[in-house]
Amino acid sequence: MTRRVGRPLILAALVAATVVFVYPFVWLVSASFKPRGEVFDNRLVPETFTLDNYVQVWREVPMAQWLGNTTLVTVLAGITVTLSSAAVAWGFAYFRFRGRGLLFGLVLATMMLPGAVTLIPTYLIWKELGFVGTLTPLWAGNLFGSAFYIFLIRQFFLGLPRELFEAAQLDGAGNWTIFRAIALPLARPALVLTLLFETQAAWTDLMRPLIYVQDTDKFTVPRGLKALLDQYGFGGEWHWEIVVTASVIATLPMILLFFAGQRHFVQGIATTGSKG
Amino acid sequence: MTTTTAAPVAAGPVAPTAAARSRSRRNLRSALLFLSPWILGFLIFTLWPVLYSAYLSLTDYDVINDPQFIGLENYRAMATDPKIALALTNTVVYTVLAVPLHVAGALGLALLLERAGRSSGFFRTAFFLPKMTPPVAVGVLVLLLFNGQNGLVNEALGAVGIQGPYWTTDQTWIKPALVLMSMWTIGSTVIILLAALRQVPSELYDAARVDGAGFWRRTFAVTVPMISGTIFFVVVVNTIAAFQMFTEAYTAFFGSGNTTYANEAALFYVIYLFQQGFENLNMGYASAMAWLLFVIILAVTLVQLAVSKRVVYYEGDQK
């Protein structure tokens, strides 16, 4: 009895929640095709459909440059952190040496440190090296691996049968070959997950671009969106249609990324919880 | 004959140890090669920054001139800086409002999803999608959707006869608006809780049902205790994140263009730290602020851990 009544109720609640979660996207996309005067009319389908906002964003700001900058930073950040974290994870998973547990504990402990503590000295390092004002500080820290990903990939390595690597070693394969030719290909799901997580993190970051780049030409899309908001949203101009359209442009690649890697995202996030 | 066989036997206990020792040394050398990126990164981008920021917190430093050692002056100044008190209050209020709502909301959605059967994949995607939105765009959405005059939220409220407040300009309503907006991005918490729910053995529910327990009874007597470890995890993670709230609030209420707003209600701790460090170039002061934040987060996490020892059930516990 409860089951028969319960089921439609559950579905109704889920549908209602879905509307709440999806509607802001619909609202945003719809508003981006409306002329200035109608942006806030809250209509689902634009009364007057126009592509002017996109044309105008393209004309007013170097959006292509921003997209290029963000893509460059994101690709470099993703590749470097995936490879370096994989190497470090392998170091912890495969080799047995004294102090391994302690050292790995240190890796995990760094995750507890709020980013604010290292924020200023890190800025001073990049300033000393002459990289402030360039895109380098937005990704180069990833050359050294990242604790969370090291943890994630190491877990995966530990799940692989050790005999596989010992057999390769008996066949005369060196450490590097075992890592490159056997371990890395087998760890593909963990590497894809790392790449996806980092792509999202690098693409959407605002604080680092705020700190490190000042020239409009060097902006990433999120940094550019903030600048657009400051100029067109506030700053007396009130051209919200520009801000709305730039928000769509900033968000769309992440939506595509999600659908490209949906299975990995969902499974990956589910496992981060069970590790805690 | 005896000597020829005796020799290897005698050498037996010695030779393998030497080989083992050299193998383990080789092992360590190879391991270090693989670990070297992290070791370098740790020394340059963690250890040194931690030590240097501790030192900077005892100085007056504006980047242009050398740091001037001033002892605990920054910490003393923080104690009397009204904006520190304001930022801390804002941050605590936001955290106390947001974390329980996030976890309760996510748990509610996860419970629904668990009973959705085959269609749960579709809904899960819908709930997770907002999490992909760049936080800057979420900040923009706060301004758009919660606009007091013609925002979508107030229009929806108006449809049921409620006159919505001026969320983004009224000091009382800025934090509630940010909290409600942050509910939009609870998708990953939903996924984590759903994964935990699916681990709960169904015999427990059957047993409870036989005993006559209804839905709510089963939820609070079986489900919640069984996944309390995961609930604790998401509480800790959400708390740490809420304490470091920056991008959404900074986007919506701070920055070069935004001088028209009275935005004290959105001055969160990390925003004030960022302003002190990178807008006012008070890097010593900002470093001291960072250390206070570290101590607060550590203390809160330890308290949560202590509480969890009493209320969290882990499988294999003797309780």
From TrEMBL, chain A:
Q: Which residues form the ABC transmembrane type-1 domain?
A: 67-261
Against CDD domains, the record matches this protein to: TM_PBP2
User: Which controlled-vocabulary keywords does the entry list?
Assistant: Cell membrane, Membrane, Transmembrane, Transmembrane helix, Transport
Membrane topology field: Multi-pass membrane protein
Localization: Cell membrane
InterPro entries, sorted:
MetI-like, MetI-like_sf
Matching SUPFAM superfamilies: MetI-like
Q: What transmembrane ranges does the database entry give? A: 9-29, 72-95, 102-126, 138-157, 178-197, 238-259
Q: Which Pfam families match?
A: BPD_transp_1 (PF00528)
Instruction: From the UniProt record, give one GO term of the biological process aspect.
Output: transmembrane transport
Q: Which PROSITE patterns match?
A: ABC_TM1
Q: Which GO terms describe its cellular component?
A: plasma membrane
Keyword presence, NADP: no
Which family does the entry's similarity section mention? Belongs to the binding-protein-dependent transport system permease family.
Report the protein name in the record.
Answer: Sugar ABC transporter permease
Q: Identify the species of origin.
A: Cellulomonas cellasea DSM 20118
TrEMBL record, chain B:
> SUPFAM superfamilies from the xrefs?
MalF N-terminal region-like (SSF160964), MetI-like (SSF161098)
Gene Ontology annotations of biological process type: transmembrane transport
**Topological type in the membrane:** Multi-pass membrane protein
Instruction: Domain (ABC transmembrane type-1): give its ranges.
Output: 88-304
Quick check: keyword Transmembrane in the entry? Answer: yes
Which key words are in the record?
A: Cell membrane, Membrane, Transmembrane, Transmembrane helix, Transport
Is the keyword Membrane in the record? yes
Localization, UniProt = Cell membrane
- What PROSITE patterns does its record include? ABC_TM1
The record lists the membrane-crossing segments as 31-51, 92-113, 125-146, 177-197, 218-243, 249-274, 286-307
Which cellular component terms (GO) are annotated to the entry?
Answer: plasma membrane
> Family, per the entry?
Belongs to the binding-protein-dependent transport system permease family.
- Protein name, UniProt field: Spermidine/putrescine ABC transporter permease
